[in-house]
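Recall that a protein's primary structure is simply its ordered list of amino acids. Everything else, from secondary elements to tertiary packing, is in principle encoded there. The following example makes that idea concrete.
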Amino acid sequence: MTSDKRFGPKGWTPDRLGSLAGKTFVITGASAGAGFEAARVFLSKGARVVMLNRNPEKSAAAIANLKRELGDDADVAFVRMDLAVLGSVREAAAEVMQKVPRIDALICNAAIAQVARQEITVDGFESQLGVNHFGHFLLCGLLFDRVEASGGRIVVVGSNAYKTGLKRIQFEDLDFDEKYTAWNAYAQSKLAQMLFG
């Protein structure tokens, strides 16, 4: 197996991106971590970023940090969305459809992991499956026409955890009512995301 040398000795880095002016990226879980870093890179290249986050205070702080670093003209906005509540996903998608005329990429990044005890969402799903997969699944369905009309793409951020745990969707006990373990439930949620992707 030969390694890919197309990008030089350091591999691919964000500085290889050209201008993203006129592009819009919608990112879940963008107030911290990988979602925040993606927002930073896209904004630094002139794109518009719409963050779909659960926490308004953390989102405001993230936006303030980005504007402090990149300037007040950084085109970044926030729409509140809780992936654990499908009603919240529907409301956020409706707001995005109203305010965001194009979506060049919908990046399904937000996730929860290692929930110690079984938690059930208000819609009746094991929390990791509910947040990591079902919330994003609904969001993608609601925004699909806008992404397609923009010639955009949907990016599902996965994890190698999909290769672990039970290595299957446990349809006979989707919520792990019989034998909950944080790891198996998380692995199942990531497998669901990979299958969806």
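The chain has one domain: 20-196. The beta strands are 24-28, 48-53, 76-80, 105-108, 153-156.
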